[in-house]
Amino acid sequence: MDSFQTTWAPLLYLVAGILFILALRGLSSPATSRAGNRNGMIGMAIAVGTTLALVWSQLDLQTWGLILGGVAIGGTIGAIIARKIPMTDMPQLVAAFHSLVGLAAVLVAAAALYSPVSFGISGIAGIKAASLIELGLGSAIGALTFTGSLIAFAKLNGNMSGSPIMLPARHLLNIALAVGIVVLMVILIQSNGSAQWAFWGVTVLALILGITLIIPIGGADMPVVVSMLNSYSGWAAAALGFTLGNFALIITGALVGSSGAILSYIM
């Protein structure tokens, strides 16, 4: 098991990362999009399989049941949605999926905060400062992505007006929310993770910031917003990848973050 953890697991994660790069390259052209999609699926299967192989001896039967049950339920729902949603509704589907990525980042960060020993991030005085920065950033970006993607979905899907919604003094409000997030993160770091209320404060302020940043943007610009939020979800995943020591998350998050940022700039 030690040999697999130190040698084979990083190698398999690297292979998964290469496949993700090939997937992005393939998706750049209609002629190679099927091959690109296939590479992405294989890469994800390798990444998930490697992660499960790393922890299989540490988990009891009940935990395995929860994991496999979650995979089965999520996979079934994803397959049904993918088959039923028409291509014209892809932008709002992508926005909805991005919201789930953001929510997952928040939940993983919370789990690491409440069980640092399980994640290997505890130090003598508490949780390591570097890990707290990663947790705070991951949760903040994830929360912002969650609510921002929900607003983008609602505007694209016609559940709310596509017209810009201008809040009074919205720029000052956004600045105040951003400053509040920074202050609470400093408190969280200085407390070595014991001020858990500060973590949840960061999360709540980021949830609000996701709303206030997106609602002033019109529906016609939502594709750009979706691409930007895609980038945010990637950086959230990369931040948590450092906390978890997971090379696949770091590589994939960096790929998604950078490609989303470039696409937003081009659009």
Structural class: mainly alpha
Q: How many structural domains does the protein architecture include?
A: 2
Major pleated sheet? none
What gross morphology would you assign? Answer: globular
Rg computed from alpha carbons, rounded to a whole number of angstroms: 19 Å
Query: pLDDT average, as an integer?
Result: 85
Helix content: over 70%
Total E-strand runs: 0
Poorly predicted segments: none
> Approximately what portion of the residues adopt beta-strand conformation?
under 5%
What's the total helix number? 10
What is the first-to-last residue Cα distance? Answer: 47 Å
What is the H-and-E element order?
A: HHHHHHHHHH
Spell out the key features of this protein.
single chain; 267 residues
How is this structure best described in words?
- The chain is built from ten helices and no strands.
- The chain has 267 residues and is an all-alpha fold.
- The mean pLDDT is 85.
